[in-house]
## 1
Amino acid sequence: MDVPRAGTSLYHALRLTPAARRPALHLWVRWWHEVSRIPMDVRDPGVAEAKLGWWRQEIAETAQGRARHPLTQAWLSLPSATREAMGEAHWPWWQQQLDGLLQLVHQTRWMDDASLQQHMQQTTGGACRVAARLLGARSEAAVTAASLLGLGLRQAHQLARLGQDARAGWIMVGIDLLQSHDVRAHQLSRPESPMPAGWPGLLATLHQRARATLLQALDAVRALPPAERQALRPLVYLAHTSLALAEAVHAGGETVLHQRIVLTPLRKSWMAQQVRWGWLR
C-alpha cells in the first residue's frame, strides 16, 4: 500500500513539508503506519506481541547501524546530516511507539479513560514529537506543542472512527467514560434506535475534548518564534483538518455509529492551500 495515499490529510501535510526534509518524514510516516496497524490487523494477541517484539529488536539493531527491514535500511541510507540532527536520543521514541502498541495488545481492546489517554499521548503524541524534530523544530516548547497536537489528532481520529472501530471489536472510549454516560459498549457496535439518553452527552464530551486539545496545541504553536511556527506548518494543517472533522462528527450525531465520517478531498486540498498562504495558523 502506498502510504500516504494521494488526497489524504497526511499526503497534503507532506506536500507542505520542505523538499529537503520530506524523505525522512515520509519514512517516519510509513514506519509508523506499518507498526500501528499490527494490533488492529492481527487477531491473535500472541502473534501481535511477537511482531512488535521483532520490531523492538529491529530498532535496537538499526540504532547500531544494522538494519534488515527495507524501511529501516532506507532510514540508514538517509544523509548523515539528517540523522545526526535527530541525535541519538530519538531512538527511545521509536521504542516508545512499540511500547504503546504493546499496551494496546495487552489491554485486549478495553481501557479505562486514563489508560486510553496515556496510550494516545505515548503513541500519536510521541509520533508528532518525532515529526517536529524531523521538520526542524528543536526547542522543548515546540516539541511539547507537537506532542499535544498529536494527542488532539488521535482524539479526533478515534471520534470519527467510533462506530467503525466498535464494529471491529475495538471500543476506543474509556469504559469508565461510557459508564458515566450510561452507554454500553454493545450500543456503539450495534446501535439501537433510539440510542440511550446518555449518548448525546458522550458524543459532546468526546467532541469537546478533541476540540479543546487541538485549540490549546494551536495556541502553543502560535506562541513559538516564527521559524519554529513555519517548521510545524504541516502539523498545523493536520490540526485544522482534525478540528473540521470533529465538528462534522458532532453535527452528524448518530451517523458516526453507522459510517465513518471523512472530509472531502476538495476540502482537505483547500485547507492545505489556506495553510500555505498563512490564512490558517
Note: The chain has a mean pLDDT of 93.
## 2
Amino acid sequence: MLRMSLFATGALVAVFAVFVSGAAGGHTLQQAVASRTSPAAFPVTIVTPAGEVTISKRPGRIVSLSPTATESLFAIGAGRQVVAVDDQSDYPKSAPRTTLSGFTPNVEAIASYRPDLVVVSYDPKGLSGALRKLGIKVIHHDGAKAFQGAYQQIRQLGLVTGHEVEAMTLIRGMKSQIRRIVHAARSKATRLSVYHELTPDLYSATSKTFVGKVYDALGLRNIADAADSTGAGYPQLSAEYIVAASPDVIVLADTVCCGQKPSTVAARPGWDRISAVRTGSIVRIDDSIASRWGPRLVSFFRAMSRALARI
C-alpha cells in the first residue's frame, strides 16, 4: 500500500502554499527566474507547509528519504551531492543503495551519513524534529496535490542545492512536453472513461488526487469519482461497481508489486463484460511512475497517450 500512502499524504494537505522567500544575500524565486545565468547565492530560505528552512551554504551531503525527491535531485544535476537514499528510491539506477527507511526511520542510521541536508516526504515519529536537534537541516516535501505543487518542489530543490538553472530548465521542459501530449490526446480521451487500479483489492484514485489530475488533464472521466463517499480520494471500489461502470480504459498501477496484467484482469469473474477488457485497452504503468510526482510525470502522460492512440 506504499503508493496509497504517498498519494494520500499529499491529498491531506489542504493548501500547498509553497513559496520562496529571500534571505539576506539569498535568492527570491523571482530572482532565480530572472537571473538564471547567475551563480547560485546562499543563504537561501524556502517556506513549505512544514515550515521555513534556511540553507546557509550549498549542501554537499544530502540524504533523500523521498523517492520523488531522489528522482528530482538527480534530474536537476544534484546527484553527486546525494550520499544516501531510502530503500524505496529505485530510480535512477545510479542513486546510492541503502537500507534506510522513510517510513520507519532510524535517526542514528541517517545521521551516520553525516548529512547537511535531509529531504523527506513523510515525517513519522517526529523524525524532522529529531534530526534538527542534531543540527541537520530538513526539508519536508509532502505529496504534491497538483502539478504546480510538484513544479514548486523541484524549483525549491534546485534553489537549496545550487541548481536553480537546471531546475527551471527541467520544469519548462516538463510543462512543454505535457502540454504537447495533452493537446494531441485530449480530443479522443474526452469520449472515454478510466479506472485506475492501485491494488488488486480494487483501491482506486479519484480526480482529487495527484494521479487523478493526469486523467483529468487528458479529459478522461474517472469512474472512482462517484464512489468516493468520504472525499478522501482513494475509495475501495467493488468488482460489481467496476463491471457496471464498464470503463473504456483500465490502468494497472499494481504490476510490479502485485503481478497484475491484462490476463489476470480478464480472468476476474464478470470482468470480460468490461469495455476495456473486451477491447484490450488495459495499460500497464510501472508502480513507481504512477505513485510519484517528479520528473517522470512526463512518462506517465506519454504512456497514457500511447495507450489512447491504440484504442
Note: Residues 89 and 234 are 23 Å apart (CA to CA).
